[in-house]
């Protein structure tokens, strides 16, 4: 629904409420003017909040303020106090009873008509639903909250509302909107100058830093974190230093500022010791050890990791102990103790069940390094292949999650509109009940109500029609997203598999004299180093640039597919096998001869490929199954990786016309090459 339509609905609903209010003016005069915030209670709440942020105020102090309140206390004061009570609870204490109490107070705020109180309760409900994991309900409340914020003058309420919105939207990956809300929260804080200003500014700055981290803008996130530490120092919040320096070190390690990261972790340890924060101390020690491993300063890393392991075992921290044990075994292997490889494998399997999927994918990179250092090249290939498959599955899950969140936002918006209309109808009904003694006036207003209701129905119909049109547009967008890679714009694996499923050309006898098709599987060399050293933004730039180059070499009948991660698949229709190596050589030159420019940096990129004709004429039988042909191309690619990268290996012909040769071709390509059963061609990349 467009913004102009929403404004019209709300405006007409307000007109309806206004005319009903005119008819019951005597009742409002009898009830008295809505009271303003009680200065004394508000001052006490300010003092409580400051004490709470410094760790000196208790729930008993808040209860003492509560005892001074009654039904005549202004609704905004009561909503604020209730919010502080919820804030003082631990996550396990917030139950269904707490949520029901919040809903009841929100309904009372709605009846009062005090915009600041209504807005504050909406912000509180956003937080409550978010903390309970009910994202849909939180988004619905956020949509309703957004309609109220333009009319709120209180800086405190605007700060709370935008802070809650930024936290929720950041959690669902809508970083641009989250950043917009945090900036508006910062504007609200800048309008205040009291004992709570620095504390609130710190919360906003931390939110901005975490949004930049989610957007992979690590340098901007680091700038915000440094500013955050300065604010904490100005406010004297020493208890926050350990956590903030830990986050600073994490960002510096991502940006490969490794020595600076170690210094930040050490500072975090010093502050954590002052507050006996053992968990933060262990986390920092592990981070320092991991950073020293990256610098290949293995003896220093061993010393601090061993000390951390002893402490973790002393406090029965099983998760940290397993991670530290894995790191120590990795150091053993990298220092030449190859007997530790089996123990390292066992440690990796134990860690796998207690860390996230993305962390385990990163851990496999260490396993690959260890295998390669130990000379176990077949295991290196296997673990890299496993890592690639897990990364592809992880990326698929992330894409599905993004689509689901988009649908959830659309549904939340529709539900918020329905709730808003229902609330307006409830208000109208309550007004009628309160005006039972004014039946004569109701009679005169009845015609006006009917006209306004008709207009509302007409506008609602038009709004529904526009919503359907918008839904159709979203469906088209989702259909495109389901078949294309969001980063490069290339076709994705799903669309290629669908094309192969529908392919009927191989069964057409009229095509016997035409050339076969071809499959080229291509993988960017050392792509993880680009991400680690240049940043993920530079890595994304490399993938986008290579996608454009591959498209420039393809015909309209060809398919260029992002197969997953840094891997691309090129499907060529009717390609003469004798010209296929020349085409692959041109591909490698197009990729490797011209470096990629990203963020003012020059990045040299090469690729390794495997290729094969499809269908493949083996002499024994013709392989019509594209997946079998792609499997052979994949083995050729990995042989190219093992032999040094920046090259391509093509499977051209099966020389041994027997079943054993065909089986070796499909399952052990290197063995088939050594026995002379298959003819291959080697295509070097640019020097």
Automatic annotation (TrEMBL):
What is the protein name given in its UniProt record? diguanylate cyclase
Q: What class of enzyme is it?
A: transferase
Q: What are the alphabetically sorted keywords of the record?
A: Coiled coil, Membrane, Transmembrane, Transmembrane helix
Q: Where exactly are the transmembrane stretches of this chain?
A: 442-461
Q: Which PROSITE patterns match?
A: GGDEF
- The organism named in the record is Aliidiomarina taiwanensis
Origin superkingdom: Bacteria
SUPFAM superfamilies in the cross-refs: Nucleotide cyclase (SSF55073), TPR-like (SSF48452)
Q: Which cofactor does it need?
A: Mg(2+)
Q: Where is the GGDEF domain?
A: 515-653
Using the record for this protein, list the coiled-coil segments as residue ranges, or answer none.
Answer: 387-439
Per its UniProt record, what Pfam families does this chain match? GGDEF, TPR_8
Gene Ontology MF term list: diguanylate cyclase activity
Q: Which reaction does it catalyse?
A: 2 GTP = 3',3'-c-di-GMP + 2 diphosphate
The answer to whether the entry has keyword Mitochondrion is no
Cross-referenced NCBIfam families: GGDEF
SMART domains per the UniProt record, alphabetical: GGDEF, TPR
Q: What is its EC number?
A: 2.7.7.65
């Amino acid at each position: 629904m467009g913004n102009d339509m929403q404004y019209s609905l709300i405006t007409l609903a307000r007109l309806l409420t206004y005319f009903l209010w005119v008819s019951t003016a005597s009742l409002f005069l009898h009830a008295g003017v809505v009271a303003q915030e009680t200065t004394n209670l508000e001052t006490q709440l300010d003092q409580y909040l400051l004490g709470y942020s410094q760790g000196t105020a208790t729930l008993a102090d808040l209860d003492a303020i509560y005892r001074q309140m009654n039904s005549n206390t202004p609704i905004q004061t009561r909503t604020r106090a209730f919010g502080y009570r919820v804030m003082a609870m631990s996550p396990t204490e917030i139950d269904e009873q707490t949520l029901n109490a919040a809903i009841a107070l929100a309904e009372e705020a709605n009846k009062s008509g005090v915009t600041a109180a209504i807005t504050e309760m909406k912000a509180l409900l956003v937080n409550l639903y978010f903390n309970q994991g009910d994202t849909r309900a939180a988004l619905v409340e956020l949509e309703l909250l957004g309609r109220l914020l333009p009319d709120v003058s209180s800086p405190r309420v605007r700060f709370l509302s935008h802070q809650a919105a930024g936290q929720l939207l950041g959690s669902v990956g809508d970083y641009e909107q989250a950043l917009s809300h945090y900036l508006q929260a910062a504007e609200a804080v800048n309008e205040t100058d009291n004992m709570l200003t620095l504390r609130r500014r710190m919360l906003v700055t931390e939110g901005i830093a975490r949004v930049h981290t989610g957007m992979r803008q690590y340098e901007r996130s680091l700038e915000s974190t440094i500013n955050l530490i300065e604010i904490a120092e100005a406010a004297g919040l020493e208890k926050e230093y350990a956590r903030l320096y830990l986050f600073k070190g994490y960002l510096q390690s991502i940006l490969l500022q490794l020595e600076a990261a170690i210094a930040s972790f050490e500072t975090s340890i010093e502050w954590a010791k002052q507050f006996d924060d053992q968990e933060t101390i262990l986390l920092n020690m592990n981070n320092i050890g991991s950073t020293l491993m990256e610098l290949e300063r293995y003896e220093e890393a061993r010393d601090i990791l061993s000390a951390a392991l002893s402490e973790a075992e002393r406090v029965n921290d099983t998760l940290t102990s397993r991670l530290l044990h894995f790191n120590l075994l990795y150091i053993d292997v990298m220092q030449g103790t190859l007997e530790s490889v089996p123990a390292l494998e066992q440690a990796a399997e134990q860690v796998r069940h207690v860390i996230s999927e993305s962390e385990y994918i990163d851990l496999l990179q260490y396993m690959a390094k260890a295998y390669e250092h130990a000379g176990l090249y077949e295991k290196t290939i296997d673990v890299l292949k496993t890592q690639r498959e897990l990364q592809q599955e992880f990326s698929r899950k992330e894409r599905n999650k993004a689509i689901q969140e988009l649908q959830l936002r659309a549904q939340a918006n529709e539900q918020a509109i329905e709730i808003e209309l229902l609330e307006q109808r409830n208000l109208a009904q309550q007004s009628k009940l309160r005006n039972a003694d004014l039946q004569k006036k109701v009679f005169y207003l009845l015609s006006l109500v009917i006209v306004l209701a008709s207009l509302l129905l007409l506008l609602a119909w038009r709004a529904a029609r526009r919503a359907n049109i918008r839904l159709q547009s979203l469906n088209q967008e989702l259909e495109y997203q389901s078949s294309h890679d969001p980063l490069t714009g290339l076709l994705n694996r799903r669309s290629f598999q669908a094309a192969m499923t529908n392919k009927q050309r191989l069964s057409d006898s009229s095509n016997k004299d035409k050339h076969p098709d071809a499959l080229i599987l291509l993988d960017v060399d050392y792509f993880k180093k680009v991400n680690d050293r240049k940043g993920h933004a530079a890595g994304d730039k490399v993938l986008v640039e290579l996608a454009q180059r591959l498209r420039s070499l393809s015909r309209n009948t060809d398919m260029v597919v992002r197969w997953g991660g840094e891997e691309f698949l090129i499907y060529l229709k009717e390609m003469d096998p004798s010209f296929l190596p020349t085409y692959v050589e041109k591909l490698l030159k197009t990729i490797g001869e011209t470096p990629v420019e990203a963020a003012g940096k020059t990045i040299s990129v090469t690729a390794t490929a495997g290729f094969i004709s499809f269908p493949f004429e083996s002499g024994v039988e013709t392989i019509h199954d594209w997946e079998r042909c792609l499997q052979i191309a994949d083995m050729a690619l990995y042989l190219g990786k093992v032999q040094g990268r920046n090259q391509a290996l093509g499977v051209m012909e099966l020389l041994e016309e027997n079943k054993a040769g065909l089986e070796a071709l499909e399952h052990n390509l290197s063995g088939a090459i050594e026995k002379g059963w298959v003819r291959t061609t080697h295509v070097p990349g640019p020097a």
